[in-house]
Design brief:
By secondary structure, this protein is an alpha/beta fold. About 45% of the residues lie in helices and about 15% in strands. The protein is built from 18 helices and 16 strands.
């Protein structure tokens, strides 16, 4: 692995040494062996297969009778790390688009191989990230002076790319039995670095958020971004040169603006869903709000405040709430204590089949009160939000990857500085509010969205126009690019 240059820019020797030191630390801690790797196979199992014909990539010893060889015929592979919900949500969008375009999606999650040094490293780092996210929502000092830095400036320098590239060598053995020519879509930089290091040829790096961070840069891959500002930021390496002199930019062949990564089922129904929202607005039906917990589970107190603020409107059937707690049993216990103490009524749904049945029924039926969703299955925990989006009028969310979805959005306080630009993107293209970081501004905006019609009408109008302009076609375009790379390399 060459760490001496990055896109032609010389890497300081001190940075290279730090990167190698970090790799050696985790390699020793988790007994890294480049010659130890899982023999992988595809499995037609789970809800992902039922929804998108998506095959899960696991060790062939998982269930030898059901194991199938990984096929490169009319297929793409989506690489993820089950760290937070955003990366998984992007993967679902890509799988949905792949199916719609006639391809078989394979899902390879690097947390699926528990005996590997790579999986052990990810689990260790994930615990630290989730802890930081939760502390940031409870401590203003920690959030302002530590977490904001960690989630922005700390990962903004290209020297950080060098460190991630070196660390990701620990993941490369996981790809040993993956076909090297399969179109590969990576939703996390560690996944992308590992794939490139292992020799995969057609890697598309799916970049989240809207804030250029060197953390997401994967040399040797083609980078997909969701907005013009992200394109310019990554293409020019803006603000990424601290401690490293940059003479060269990212080549234009290595980056493209593809649009927002959205599920086919949502994109293809934008007009229908917005028409239903406007119909409910104009007929005076109970307004439907969706609250969705992030992967780190950092927003319990904010959720409680929103429900308290809306309690009168809920009781008067002016507002109803869907609350997706994901798979956060502990966070739900905290919120449940508040609800029970304050005698706030709710209905809890934990069965995946019941969740899907409920959503289908409420597509046309009246909704009143508060419904809480909690699932122990990770896929269900994430995908419940995607399904609820289509029957909701407004989504209340931190400006995470959900910033890019075509539903009117109320953006509450971010969890990490990198998320701020998600709200900027949403507010500028007209499908969401500006980030309401203060409690008072959030309360005022929430009241407007409950009692008035103009913001909802504005957002629905822009969502329909954005759909016409192709802004929500990112998942289709990313899949097409990965296949295009494969075809290009075949012809050489």
């Amino acid at each position: 692995m060459d760490l001496s240059t990055l896109y032609g820019n010389t890497v300081p020797s001190s940075v290279k040494k730090q990167a190698e030191k970090q790799f050696n630390k985790f390699a020793k801690k988790f007994s890294y062996d480049p010659n130890s790797y899982p023999n992988l196979a595809g499995y037609a199992i789970g809800s992902g297969y039922e929804d998108f014909a998506m095959k899960t990539v696991l060790e062939n010893s998982f269930d030898p009778e059901k194991a199938e060889p990984i096929s490169t015929e009319k297929s793409v592979m989506i690489g993820t790390i089950r760290m937070g919900f955003g990366h998984c949500r992007m993967a679902i969008a890509l799988a949905s688009a792949a199916k719609a375009l006639g391809y078989t999606p394979y899902w390879m999650d690097l947390l699926s191989y528990p005996d590997s040094a790579g999986t052990k490293t990810i689990r260790y780092l994930e615990k630290l990230y989730n802890l930081g996210s939760r502390i940031s929502q409870r401590s203003r000092f920690f959030n302002k002076y530590i977490w904001e830095y960690i989630t922005s400036a700390a990962g903004q320098r290209l020297t950080h790319t060098v460190k991630e590239k070196a660390l990701s060598k620990i993941f490369s053995p996981l790809y040993t039995t993956v076909p090297k020519d399969i179109p590969f879509l990576s939703t996390h930089p560690w996944v992308g670095h590992g794939a490139v290091e292992a020799g995969l040829k057609n890697v598309v790096t799916i970049i989240p958020d809207n804030f250029p961070l060197a953390f997401h840069v994967v040399p040797g891959s083609t980078h997909a971004v969701q907005s013009p500002s992200a394109y310019m930021g990554y293409r020019s390496f803006i603000a990424m040169g601290t401690t490293m002199n940059l003479d060269y930019c990212m080549p234009k062949e290595d980056i493209f603006e593809c649009g927002h990564y959205i599920d086919h089922e949502i994109v293809s129904n934008v007009e229908t869903d917005c028409e239903q929202r406007l119909r409910r607005v104009h007929s005076g039906e109970t307004r439907r709000f969706l609250l969705t917990m992030g992967g780190a589970g950092a927003q319990v107190m904010r959720f409680a405040d929103i429900i308290r603020t809306s309690r009168k409107a809920i009781e008067e059937n002016k507002a109803a709430f869907f609350i997706n707690m994901g798979d956060h049993v502990g966070r739900w216990k905290d919120l449940k204590k508040i609800f029970d103490k304050e005698k706030i009524a709710y209905e809890l749904i934990t069965d995946w089949k019941e969740t899907r049945k409920f959503i289908e029924e409420k597509r046309t039926n009246e909704v009143r009160g508060i419904y809480v969703f909690l699932h122990d299955n990770f896929y269900a925990a994430v995908y419940t939000t995607n399904l609820l989006i289509r029957i909701s009028d407004v989504m209340i969310t931190k400006p995470s990857e959900l910033s890019f979805y075509p539903i009117p959005k109320l953006f509450i306080q971010r969890v990490g500085r990198h998320e701020a630009w998600g709200a900027i993107r949403g507010s500028e293209i007209g499908d969401g509010t500006i980030e309401t970081a203060s409690i008072t501004s959030m309360h005022r905006t929430l009241k407007l969205l409950i009692e008035e019609d103009d913001l909802l009408e504005l957002y629905c109008r822009h969502i329909i126009q954005n759909k016409k302009d192709g802004i929500y076609d990112g998942a289709y375009n990313a899949v097409r690019k990965a296949v295009e790379l494969r075809d290009k390399h075949k012809s050489v």
